[in-house]
Amino acid sequence: MSIQVSDGVFRLHTAETTYLFRTTAFGHLESLHYGRRVEDADVESLRYKHEIPHGSTVLYDEKADPSYCLEELPLEWSGVGKGDFRVTPMELRLPDGSFTCDFVYDSHRIESGIVKMDTLPQSAGIGAETLLVTLKDKAFTVYLDLYYTVYEAENVITRRAVLRNAEQAPVLLKRLMSYSLDLPDRGYTVATLSGGWINEANVIERKLETGMLVNESTSFSQHRHNPAVALLSRGATEDSGLVYGFNLVYGGNHQTSVELSPTGLVRITGGINPYCFLWELQPGETFETPEAVMTCSLGGKNGMSQNFHAFVQKQIVRGDWQNKERPILINNWEANFFQFRQNSLLRLAKRGKRLGCELFVLDDGWFGARNTDTAGLGDYTVNRKKLPEGLEGLGKRVNGLGLSFGLWFEPENVNDDSDLYRAHPDWAIQRPNRTPALGRHQKILNLTLPAVRDYIVENVSHILDTCPIAYVKWDMNRKVSDFEDGAFLHRYMIGYYEVLSRIFRPRPQILLEGCASGGGRFDLGHLCFAQQIWASDDTDPIERLRIQGGLSLFYPVSTMGAHVSMAPHQQTLRHTPLFTRFAVAAFGAFGLELDPMDLTPIERKVLTSMLSEYRKIRKTCQFGTFTRVDTGNPYIIQWQAQSETQTVILRAKTLTKAAQVNDLLTVTGLDPHKTYTCREIQNPLFVAGFGTLLKHILPVKIRSYSHILLAANKRLKMDDYAEQYRASGAQLMAGVQLHRSFIGTGYSEKMHMQGDDSAMLFVITEDS
Ligand code: DGJ
């Protein structure tokens, strides 16, 4: 049993953590402990001591207990107007017109698995147990149900709150968060993922001082601020120290507040953003908040990440593709944009197939008058000029090449220049008295309207059922404007999840990739439907190290769409080596975003052998235990993925230092007593990249711009030195010194000829 309740004390245990709270003499829920697993925790030692009250406080019931002050208590929930002045998880206008409320213990029960939600996606409940504690306001028959679902194996506890109005009059909700939790201060730093378009998932760490840090979004989950938040205790590293992680199974406007009170308590509360939020709860109605996910690890940031990865993989992602290796895809977007015909697509697909791709994806531009991004969105009529045999014909031909077929949709948006908008201008979100603000020349469809939802479900489903489609990319390319209020946006989310459920739950065979101008909607709500999400429109691998590395704090590798594109990269003009593009995308749901004809013949050959290498490591990269290895050098980024049979290491160098000779490769998680072979995947060198340096190496002098060199560069490659070691696990964990990189003093075959932005991939297997 992971949940035990006795004498008013609630004990929630996961494999490595314990979460404890109790009811106080006044019926409030007092937080006692969340952290290291404590088998028979002694409540007296854990409780926050408050025998002597602080000065300048408001006492809850001075006569009954002159030291009981809500502001000083660590609480599981709090209200308004009874002496707790910290950020509150709830602001309600009750039938007496006042915001003062006081919710106290009423009852509790334990259920196996989860208690199903009505409107929002939630975790799967496999092997879980749920505690429901019901609180009631002292003055009104308004109930608050607090749900705690314990995932023992994954070290995760989820929380959510449901408000039930049993009064005869409405209750107005201004704010109702999913959870609130108070922890003793440990010198926390708050880590969030923030950024923007093509600049997603920067890890921002801010020291928590007395006061509040808020992570929120006012246009769905979007690029600016991901809903996930971590609390790092002072001194926590990648591998050690107490770290908490919080996330929401929700992609609407979100908010997480972390407040350090003057008396050293940290309150964290998260859920729907109260921004413009007003929800009238009629008599007899309930309001459910999104599920929040919490984890805690003493194993530093990697410990937290690994808990989240296991949880997301098992309890969030679903469908036939949940645990299946993702197909190597070729997407035509960066190769064609809107300019294509069936024949050119088939040529592209054929080239992809020759390289080793398994899925061909037709991106934007196949319907209506969609020849630019100013028209066509909202329509589903296939553009017969581009695709004379329709999607069905194209799909069949793609299948005939030995590839499965995938298709792009952007169902939530509409262009003014579309048949849909001409027929139903009232279906777009806009205010009657204002000129609507556009984003990428488009408006958002009002998914709170049943007719709009039906239109999308029917059109998308029809295509999925009449064409041989194995994969869908669901895009969403604008932020919201011209809305009524925050409650409308929440209703939009409920409508959105209904649409996804109706389309994809009956079709679990389809691999769904979410996308919102890249990683604008990377959240657990979305991952309940989409097995993977396009992480960013920025495909430069050096940028991707930061983006995928940032996302890895909270999300597993299998969920991150990552593609090899052409260099110089569209987003940065950086010229990166092909191998680096491959190696970074290997730690993701891998694909190509290019036309192979733009590569040289030798690059195509090399890429073909990379894809065949990839098939041997794909399972480990996508589903193995993922670790960020701190190399001590901010310019050397190392990731590791480990399965039962294999360890794969990516080591990327973003800035080369001249004459730096020490290059230590350390591995983690091996058996010290076993022997392993560590092999580096062959890294190609293309001759033109060496410019005038060739003069020093070759017996004949060749100018760097000569025709001979350029011709040779198309067809010939050299091989960089590939490391290989046979060593004990203990040795590999202690570290092996890699061979030197070229520093201009001479040439040896046992030397690396890689500079800035290079990458190495190592595969480690146990010797039999
Ligand atoms: C934005 C996506 O992120 C791109 O990959 C591509 O699908 C375009 N939209 C198409 O309009």
Short description:
By secondary structure, the chain is an alpha+beta fold. The chain is built from 15 helices and 40 strands. (2R,3S,4R,5S)-2-(hydroxymethyl)piperidine-3,4,5-triol binds at residues 333, 363-364, 408, 475, 477, 515, 517-518, 534, 537.
Overall structural class, as computed from helix and strand content, comes to alpha+beta
Task: Count helical runs.
Answer: 15
Note poorly predicted spans. none
What profile does the largest beta sheet have? 10 strands, antiparallel
Helix % is 10-25%
Count the beta strands.
40
Q: Name the ligand types.
A: (2R,3S,4R,5S)-2-(hydroxymethyl)piperidine-3,4,5-triol
The outline comes out as: globular
Terminal CA distance reads 40 Å
| Integer average pLDDT | 96
Strand content: 25-35%
